[in-house]
Specification:
heterodimer, A: about 80 residues, B: four-stranded antiparallel beta sheet, three-stranded mixed beta sheet, about 55% helix
Chain lengths: ~80, ~400
């Protein structure tokens, strides 16, 4: 349900070396050129886009590994009230 | 008799305990912190929560039923508490100093071995009365003298400051050994609620650390002569009270500083969200304040490590070296200034949101508490001691 919006945000903020349209939901984003510094901009854009906040323990390679894993994380966070 | 030497390694189950401290911090201590600060009242609910976690006997060896935490563990608990309420953290820290004095220096005393078990069972809170009207803040000088008659003692002391004196179950008090002893020939005696009267001399309405309730009192007490710790106070001070005080205080100031930086980070993150590709200017300031925080943390950790090594070696002379004493003083001097610097930098990052009292990024209480660090034991006195010791210190 979130994958399409996530895909759009990854396309704008992921600074990938290949067009996002060429990637499957489970393609490895790091292989597609995602760097750990670029994940910060991506995280902030996802937080802004979905009005969520990533806790420190979710800022991992596993969360940012693919569009599918990001969509799952967003879905999980959107289900909870935002805590700062 | 079981060894009273404290454990110096980090206990394996300590991680779980520290998580509990943070949970209690979020659920109980932080929600009460503003009310405690507003009314300058004792943080009853916070101390009750620490009692429930058995934390008042955190430094009591396991042989007596305590948690047997190391100085490194205690430092981390103080830091954690500093995130939520500096007054609670200070009360906890000061109590641990008194416990450490008993644990390190009352070995072999029937009274104190029994008292440690009582402390564990009832989670007793111990305060301190070291300074005295007329001695100008010098811990190594007393005017009052304990009078021992047979197996009983009597003591009267005019103390300008006894933090949480009215809430404490007992108070460790310094005095001259006898009415004709020199001012520096001191003993350390545990006086107990029920045997002690506190007559108020002054109130505690300060800028920060308001919940410590550090009013002044004339303390009068009677009790059993075995309540006098069987080690001279100068040894208790150099081996325990001096190093432990500066370590636990610096640790809780680190907690205040780290929480301020945490608020600044949350603020910058919120700003960054508005334009993810162009980090806000304040993010550079965040990078800068993190360097200072990191330095402060390293200072605390290095002092903890050195003190733990000395405890392990159990060499009474090593604690008396000018080198060690100066480094411990340096920890206090630098941490007490860095906490003000860091909270100030965090406030610049948060801008008006940090300056406001009604914002979730507010840093007013942090800043007021931070200023107490250099004053509650005056930095100039410590610096003067260092200046003297440095003249004789030959090591590099």
């Amino acid at each position: 349900m979130y994958a399409e919006r996530v895909r759009e945000i990854v396309s704008q903020h992921g600074r990938l070396s290949v067009p996002v349209a060429e990637l499957a939901d489970d393609s490895d984003l790091y292989q597609a050129g995602l760097t750990s510094l670029a994940t910060v901009g991506l995280m902030l854009a996802l937080e802004d886009g979905f009005d969520i906040e990533f806790p420190d323990n979710m800022l991992s390679r596993r969360t940012f590994g693919s569009i599918a894993s990001l969509a799952a994380a967003v879905e999980q966070l959107a289900a909870k009230p935002v805590l700062v | 008799m079981a060894s009273l030497r404290p454990r110096t390694a980090v206990a394996p189950e300590f991680g779980a305990l520290l998580s509990e401290v943070h949970r209690v911090g979020r659920e109980v201590i932080a929600p009460a912190a503003d009310a405690v600060d507003d009314a300058a009242r004792f943080p009853h609910e916070s101390i009750a929560a620490l009692r429930e976690l058995q934390l008042l006997s955190a430094y009591v060896p396991e042989a007596y039923g305590g948690l047997g935490l190391s100085i490194a563990d205690i430092s981390k608990v103080c830091e954690a508490l500093g995130h939520y309420c500096a007054s609670t953290a200070m009360i906890f820290a000061m109590h641990q100093i008194q416990v450490a004095c008993i644990v390190h220096h009352a070995r072999g005393s029937r009274f104190f071995e029994h008292y440690l078990r009582e402390l564990v069972d009832q989670q007793l809170l111990i305060a301190s009365a070291t300074t005295e009207l007329g001695v100008g803040g010098d811990l190594r000088s007393s005017i009052c003298a304990i009078e021992v008659d047979g197996d009983r003692f009597r003591l009267v002391k005019k103390a300008p400051v006894i933090s949480y004196g009215e809430q404490a179950d007992a108070i460790l008090v310094t005095s001259r050994r006898t009415p004709d002893a020199a001012s520096s020939d001191q003993v350390h005696v545990l006086v107990r609620r029920g045997e002690t009267q506190l007559e108020a001399l002054s109130a505690w309405d300060t800028l920060g650390f308001r919940g410590t309730c550090s009013s002044g009192y004339t303390l009068s007490s009677e009790g059993a002569a075995e309540q006098i710790i069987p080690t001279p106070f100068d040894a208790i001070l150099s081996q325990t009270m001096h190093p432990v005080s500066h370590i636990v205080w610096s640790s809780l100031w680190l907690g205040i500083a780290a929480d301020a930086v945490g608020r600044a980070r949350a603020f910058v993150r919120g700003e960054a969200r508005k334009n993810p590709q162009l980090p806000p200017m304040s993010s550079l300031r965040l990078g800068e304040v993190d360097i200072v925080l990191n330095g402060m943390r390293n200072n605390v950790q290095s002092a903890v490590a050195e003190y733990a090594r000395l405890l392990e070696a159990d060499d009474a002379d090593a604690f008396k070296s000018f080198g060690f004493a100066t480094r411990i003083n340096n920890l206090k001097l630098s941490s007490s200034q860095l906490v003000v610097d860091i909270v100030g930098k965090a406030m610049l990052i948060c801008g008006l949101h940090g300056y406001r009292n009604d914002s979730k990024f507010t840093l007013g209480r942090h800043l007021r508490d931070a200023y107490g660090a250099a004053l509650m034991v005056n930095n100039d006195r410590i610096l003067a001691h260092n200046a003297t010791m440095l003249l004789a210190l030959k090591e590099a």
